[in-house]
Structures are given as structure tokens and as C-alpha cells.
Write a structure and sequence with these properties.
Length: 123
């Protein structure tokens, strides 16, 4: 959904992985309802994640669903090209008509993150 002529409120969230979540609402009640739904859904996802992380959860799922648990790959200390410690780098360029043109790859962490990685500008 995108903003339209009825949009009176717009809220944007940028997640640590670079995902953008945009909420558009015609009035404060619609905005409040949308925010509550997102918060409830996030809480449910966190709850399920915590349940699955508990000891024996994988074994119970395997038995109940006939699934075969797969071990997660070992974490490498080497960060692959196009990534930083926060995830996949984001390509950005200056706006058209900017006094100085630039382009480069940027850390996906939110602006102002204390350990945000330095941008890699292209020439």
C-alpha cells in the first residue's frame, strides 16, 4: 500500500537489516490500529522464536511433524564481499541535481548506530 489522497499520517520504520516498514493512515484511529497490529504480531513472532529456541524444541518438532532437524552452518569470522557485520550493504547515490554527486555502499544499520560501519564510496 502507498500513500494516497486520504493519507493524513505516515510512519516509517527502518529495521536493522535494512527492511523498511511504512504505515499509512487516514486518521489517528486507523494509525493506532495499524501500530497495535504490528506490535502484537512482533510480540507473537518473538514468543514463537523463544519457544523454538528452548531446549528440546527441535526434537519435539521433529517428532510431531516428522521433520529432520538441520544444524545451522558454522559462523565464519570472514565477512563476505558486499556485506558488513550488520548485514548486506545498501547501494545509494546522491539525489539528482545535488551539488556534489556521489555513490557508494552503506551499512544497513540505522543511522546513528554507535558501531555503524563506514561507507564505501565509489569513484
Amino acid at each position: 500500500m502507498a500513500a494516497n489522497e486520504n493519507t493524513k499520517f505516515q510512519v516509517n520504520f527502518k529495521l536493522s537489516d535494512g527492511t523498511l516498514v511504512n504505515i499509512y493512515a487516514a486518521d489517528s484511529a486507523e494509525l493506532e490500529g495499524s501500530l497495535s497490529t504490528i506490535q502484537d504480531t512482533a510480540a507473537l513472532i518473538n514468543s514463537v522464536s523463544a519457544s523454538l529456541s528452548s531446549a528440546g524444541a527441535a526434537r519435539a518438532l521433529a517428532q510431531g511433524l516428522g521433520a529432520t532437524p538441520v544444524a545451522a552452518p558454522a559462523q565464519s569470522s570472514v565477512i563476505e564481499e558486499g556485506h558488513c557485520k550488520h548485514g548486506k550493504l545498501v547501494y545509494r547515490t546522491s539525489k539528482p541535481g545535488a551539488p556534489k554527486e556521489w555513490k557508494g555502499w552503506f551499512c544497513p544499520s540505522p543511522q546513528g548506530t554507535p558501531d555503524q560501519c563506514a561507507p564505501k564510496f565509489l569513484r
